[in-house]
Amino acid sequence: MPDWTKLLIFSSVAVIFLFIISKLMGKKQIAQLEFIDYVMGISIGSIASEMATDVGDKPFYYYLIGMTIFFLFDILVSYLGRKGPAMKHFFKGRPLMIIYKGEINFKNLKRSRLDINDVIEMCREKGFFDMSQIEFAIFENSGKLSILPKNDYKPIVAEDIGLNLPKVKLPIYLVVDGRISFSSLNEIKKDKQWLYKKAKLDDKSIKNVLLATFIPEDNEIICQIKNKEKRVQIRKQKK
Q: The pTM is what?
């Protein structure tokens, strides 16, 4: 078999198998990269890249076995982590209190391998340019900084000023990138003809709709067409 054919086949198999493993590992591998996730990710990725470029006589399933072993080890670590906090802390580490009651914990700062400039930058990313506004700051296992501001600097919410707001409802997307979402229409018990009539659309103009959103509480359809936006008010029909 020619080398270019091997590269094509091995690369395709590596990508497919790596995608399957990533799906099985779950979104945590992408959303929060902890110690063990980092080790698993780079190890499996390294095996996959070597498999994709290996044109020698080594059987390709050796690489698949290697990636499967790392995947099973990740499953084992996740299982052990659920059995008790000690095992979870061993494999994944534990959060560190960087700022406690408005003061920097220098011991935990050193343990986290951060310096004060890193902390200042992470605070700015959270919208706090003045560290004196922070009561607690925790360096999470994912490498992110969680911040609880002092009472004087907490954002005001509706409950603080006694507002009784209606419950929030998710918008319903009826058209996405020129394609009608029939599942969304079924959810509101409407059909395509209703959409065309209320939004003043047809089979030709629907293709120019970037997004058509139905807002239930406002009884309104918002159509975004290219760089324009039009709102269509929907009248409630009397029973």
A: 0.54
